[in-house]
Write a structure and sequence with these properties.
β12 and β13 form a beta hairpin. α3 crosses α5 and α5 packs across α9. Strands 3-4-2-5-1-6-7-8 form an eight-stranded mixed β-sheet, sandwiched between helices. A four-stranded antiparallel β-sheet has the order 9-10-15-14. The radius of gyration is 25 Å and the shape is globular. It has two domains: 305 residues, 3-Layer(aba) Sandwich (Rossmann fold); 72 residues, Sandwich (Immunoglobulin-like). By secondary structure, the chain is of the alpha/beta class. It has 13 helices and 15 strands. The mean pLDDT is 85. The chain is 38% helix and 23% strand.
């Protein structure tokens, strides 16, 4: 199954292009699912078919689904109260009724991740392509980075190796005279870890890519540069950049001509941006229709690129320069990164990499865990980190 994640700046028309891309694929014989997390049915407005908690057939071969975040939130919190009943009773806490629960910010995005997981696992084999209408790029990056971060937190707070002490918990409970919820706590953590791992595997799959949508112009250019850096840091592949609402090169009135000239300048800059595969072919122009596209007829008129094949995975190669310079060099592609906004922190067997407003904690390859950071440099859109072997940890030569 191929997964196509579509995002971009807010107001760039990403939902409309997600719908158009899904419809294009379905009309070419690809069994397609399009997902959205918006509270308002912007996806249904674009498709001309209402969408909601139950998947609906929006066109032959095309299913549209907008998960009900409110229902899932109520179900999850109610189930949590049942699992933590002993602890809540001990504290004298009052239970919350499902009818009074209102989803917290971010519930829609979490429901979207679950739907993506279900499409890849429970509904495996049903679809050939899943098109995901993600939130705007900054929120999308935070959302896609959530599963590995939460799994890391769980491993730190509830290390699996400590579960060996389970046999002592009934004894401790009798001695303390209070219920011991640790067993359920570990069971819940294990279940969460499995669910998060399933989402993480879909996002990191070789067939999963990101497609950026933006309007050509100064603001769009800044947003695209920032997004390319963020997705590169997360190791996610960008398969193309769609320039939406492009005006004709020849316009009659002065105002439109000036805007078309600004768009043309931005498009030229986009074609030279690093981090987009296929060089010039990686930028696709979608013409302005003169109004908001609504329904299958308008979506068909949008010249969106097909899903195609996933580009090559993002590689972080490790160069062995021990013989020449006595170091190993880790190459991390960071197109658009600014030297002054980069920061590196070594923390045990992990490296904390910060690029502007984005941060990622990555485990070091086994060879680098026996080394010390010897320096770093940003060259040609690539962060190159030098590691020198630690004499106390590095194997001795015979």
């Amino acid at each position: 199954m191929r997964t196509l994640l579509i995002t971009g700046p807010g107001g760039s028309g990403r939902t409309t292009l997600a719908a158009a891309t899904a419809l294009h694929a379905a009309r070419h014989g690809t069994r397609t699912l399009v997902l959205s997390a918006d509270r308002t049915d912007t996806l249904g407005a674009a498709l001309g078919t209402g969408t909601g908690a139950a998947p609906v057939e929006a066109a032959p071969g095309l299913t549209a689904w907008r998960p009900d975040a409110a229902r899932r939130f109520r179900e999850d919190l109610t189930a949590f109260q049942e699992r933590a009943a002993s602890a809540l009773d001990l504290l004298g806490a009052s239970r919350l009724d499902p009818e009074e629960l209102t989803p917290l910010p971010g519930a829609e995005e979490l429901a979207l991740l679950r739907a993506l997981r279900d499409a890849a696992t429970a509904q495996a084999g049903t679809y050939d392509l899943v098109v995901v209408d993600l939130p705007p790029a900054p929120q999308a990056l935070a959302l896609l980075g959530l599963p590995p971060e939460l799994r890391r937190y769980l491993r730190r707070l509830l290390p699996p190796e400590r579960q060996a002490a389970r046999a002592l918990r009934p004894v401790l409970g009798r001695l303390a005279g209070v219920p011991m919820p640790a067993e359920r706590l570990y069971e819940t953590a294990a279940r969460w870890d499995v669910e998060l791992a399933a989402v993480e595997s879909v996002v990191e799959d070789r067939a999963t890519t990101v497609r950026l949508v933006a309007e050509p112009g100064p603001a769009g250019t800044d947003a695209v540069r920032t997004a390319l850096t963020g997705f590169a840091l997360r190791g996610l592949r960008v398969d193309g950049l769609v320039a939406n609402r492009v005006l004709p090169a020849s316009c009659d009135d002065t105002w439109s001509a000036a805007l078309a000239a600004q768009q043309s300048k931005a498009l030229q800059e986009w074609r030279d941006l690093p981090g987009i595969p296929g060089e010039r072919s990686g930028v696709h122009e979608v013409a302005h229709l003169g109004g908001d596209p609504r329904g299958a007829g308008d979506l068909t008129a949008l010249a969106v690129p097909g899903a195609g094949e996933a580009p090559s995975p993002v590689e972080w190669p490790l160069a062995d320069r021990l013989a020449d310079d006595g170091v190993l060099v880790w190459h991390i592609p960071l197109p658009g990164a600014v030297r002054e906004e980069l920061d590196l922190v070594r923390r045990g067997d992990e490296l904390v990499v910060t690029a502007g407003s984005f941060r990622r904690i990555v485990p070091l390859p086994s060879a680098l865990r026996r080394c010390a950071v010897d320096g770093a440099a940003l060259r040609e859109g690539e962060l190159r980190i030098r590691f020198a072997p630690d004499p106390g940890l590095w194997p001795r030569e015979r």
